[in-house]
Amino acid sequence: MAEPLPTLDVLRRELDAGRVSSLELVEAALARAERLEPRLHAFVGLRGAAASAEAAQADARRGRGEVRSPLDGIPVAVKDNQVLAGEPTTCASRILAGFVSPYEATAVARLRAAGAVVIGRTNLDEFAMGSSTENSAFGATRNPWDLERAPGGSSGGSAAAVAAGVVPVALGSDTGGSIRQPAAFCGVVGLKPTYGRVSRYGLVAFASSLDQVGPFARSAADCARVLQTIAGHDARDSTSIPEPAPACLEALSGDVSGLVLGLPREYFVAEGVDPEVLARVREAVAELERAGAKMREVSLPHTRHAIATYYLIAPAEASSNLARYDGVRYGHRAADAATLGDMYRRTRSEGFGSEVKRRILLGTYVLSAGYYDAYYRKALQVRTLLRRDFERALAACDVLVTPTAPEVAFRLGEKSADPLRMYLSDVYTVSANLAGVPGLSIPCGFAHGMPVGLQLLGRALDEATLLRVADAYQRRTEWHARRPPELA
Amino acid sequence: MSAAPHPRYEVVIGLEVHVQLRTESKLFCGCAVRYGEDPNHHACPVCLALPGALPVLNRQAVELALRAALAAHCTVQGRSVFARKNYFYPDLPKGYQISQYEEPLATGGFLDVELDGEGGTQRVRLTRIHMEEDAGKSIHDRAVAGQDGSHVDLNRAGVPLLEIVSEPDLRSPEQAGAYLRALRQLLRYVDVSDADLEKGHFRCDANLSLRPRGASELGIRTELKNLNSFRFVEGALRAEIERQAERLDAGERVVQATLLYDPATERTRVMRVKENADDYRYFPDPDLIPLEIESEALERARAALPELPEARRRRLAEAYELSAYDARQLTESRALADFFEAAARAHGNPKTVANWVLRDVLQALKERSGEIDATALAPEALVGLVRLVEKGKVTASNARPLVAELMQRGGDPQALVRERGLEAVADTGLLEGAVDEVLAAHPEMLERLRAGEEKILNFLMGQVMRRTRGKANPAAVRDILNRRLKD
Amino acid sequence: MARITREEVERIADLARLTLRPEEAERMTGELETILEYVASLEALDTEGVEPTSHAIPLRTPLRDDRVQPGLDPEQAVANAPERDGHAFVVPKVIAEDET
User: Fold this and answer.
1) Active-site option among A101, A178, A319, A431
2) CA A439 to CA A433: how far, in whole Å?
């Protein structure tokens, strides 16, 4: 069965009806992943026999009437920056060569405790630093809609795996748009929950105050299911919000009448935004209006400072988070170093790729003596202003509606020579991370033959309303049901 | 202060003390705080800094830190922030140390230090008290790590520490020593730390500068690292005063540097010259939420504070009419003071009990090292022993060695006296026999005693005691001797 | 005026324990220059009196009870070590300039 997979709900009904087994689903997913891998390169590693064994156990549970959850026996994929006990984690970096984690990330553990079968670890920009998945030590992932184009990043592997129908759902992580932008580029749904909603324990840190784990799926309902499974307080993460997982599925009423959707002025006049992309977003807005939502223009006046703020805070945190990769306890170590200092320098210079080094240097610089106040502290202050923008805007409306990215998926290599141009492609997504609010991208049509993403941003802890709007939209449209032309 | 002040220079010393907090588990993870075991036996994803691991603050560490801050009269900050101090070293697994920097737990405060021999006290101001995690251990010893490398053991990585920084208020090595002893005593009093120097629970770095007498501006200071005993601190400071003074005398400048002290040569040597200030790139740790101390928690901690050594010293001196020196000795540790007070209450005559505690209990404790509450000696048992002496059931000299024995095995002093066959002999016939034997052996002595040589009495008493193996009731022997004298 | 010089790039590379090849240092200097130029737009923004945000979502300090939890067994702790001796990690010789 090398056909694209349907949504989670459909699969679950098939499993419940006994028309398919978990083992069949998992082996089909593995087979499809392997068949596509040479062209798509969505995976860093597939779990093969281990996944099949877990699927067989899920089937046995089903046979005994002990189904753990609607995710039991469902094949899923996990971005390779979330650790699985007893298995390698690479973060698509040479510096983690050979590392095998002795412990498991909370989100992954919760997904697996619900019965989901992880079939593989997906590709990413090294340490999640990038917007194209080109910065992987193992080579770029390609966009299933056009193999010459980038899938977005940094969770490009997870987005591509879901878009290509390998798995119905996958986990990603989003620090400045790393779930939403690839979701938009690959024509799938991607959700970045409220900061602290999903535990970061076991998520390899890039920028600790911005990182958040979240799901990719074909439908908002599937995203809701996964969020309910992985979210909720975790005592091992001090930044975890002490609230139970939200009951998102119950919120999917299909009804948006009476909801006020805000259109942030600044997001529709940004420099460099593709008019075709804006046209699709406006069409989606019109659709939601027809569904009964009210539209209202709002303002997020500090939006134009978001990228600068983000590219000060994220590298600063990263420069410190990545200091632990020193060749002492795990991962790569340069051969034959005579002294400790020599070992450190060679290990890190050999182990990290250019983008990671660039951000370590930038972060080290902005934290260093004499620059801290001018750069880092200043950025934290602007972050406050950005947060207030959202508080004010979301007091006047329930959900903000924007494009996810200013353009459709760009060509591989198109931006890799110009770091700043690459950074600017995060213009619509970074603010949500800085403000901590949830964000979601859903497919809303095509431009230049490539998917366009509609971004919904909401109040802290109000993922349910985002999912409700997305679900209502998907009940009225078919964009999310479109599949890439079979990858011949 | 015994040592004479430097004739030409005023000495300015500030101390930074790192104290290990008495917790079961580490500051940010659940690994046990334990030493003396094989490398990396107390390590987990958090303290090994595995990818994805995150810190969670230990509640007890916060409570102990609060207690220390209150005991040192500090102002506890309603909000304090854990920052990352970034530097590379193999025993620092994350590549940064989590420590409080710009916003520490507590500021201000002071310690009143009693000065030896001078009878007065000196108030040493504290700059701040903050929490931080310890690093692991790098072992460079060739015997362990071989020629070409070092070993790294992370058992200690993440152990909770309190850093206590004094103002540069100290003016001599002896003052520094007195301050450290007082600080250690205080921390032990409030149960914040075992402050065991040998186990590295209490470590000191010192900043020292000299300035010409009368000058107001501070001189260039140097930093002395890793002074792990009080003797070391004083020795190192003396050596460094000498080194700096020699330079200044020769018209040279003191260079800002970090030095190590070699106790074998009694000299300091430069480890590292600080050309530029270290660039540790401190910033608030995004993995941790700022620590907020609510006023209720603060009041609870304040209410739970035990009586502090200074106050107890004063109270004991007054209530039991003890000398300042005795009161100080008796309050050396909280356990000892508790023991003394319990025994004094049980006995009724604090003076007598104080003598026993100061002489015999302290002597026995010194031989075994450790606190009184770690021994089997109950206050009631000491009182029982004292009463046996007072009733003449055992001689004082036979009773005194029993204190150590009671510490070892506990139990009833009367039973012990009996078991050892030390019950005092008061049988007049037996004692008269012994006295007569002694006088017969030393006939000239009686004459000398009659001639007024008082010390002869002691000699004769001693001889009788020897014959009775110390069990003779001294009063009875003295009576018999006096009678023979008049015969 | 350049916002960052080649020498500064080399100094921060050293702080970060990275060694840059000459052409890499040259290129990084240019790229960092461009990025710093861009982020300098924040300078114009008045942030006088604005509290910095380190955490977007306000939370109370979570505290953990002081109880020992099982960690890794020592064999697991050093299983990933590039070099080990028994259960100790082994690193190359530490020389004076490595001391901080």
Assistant:
1) A178
2) 9
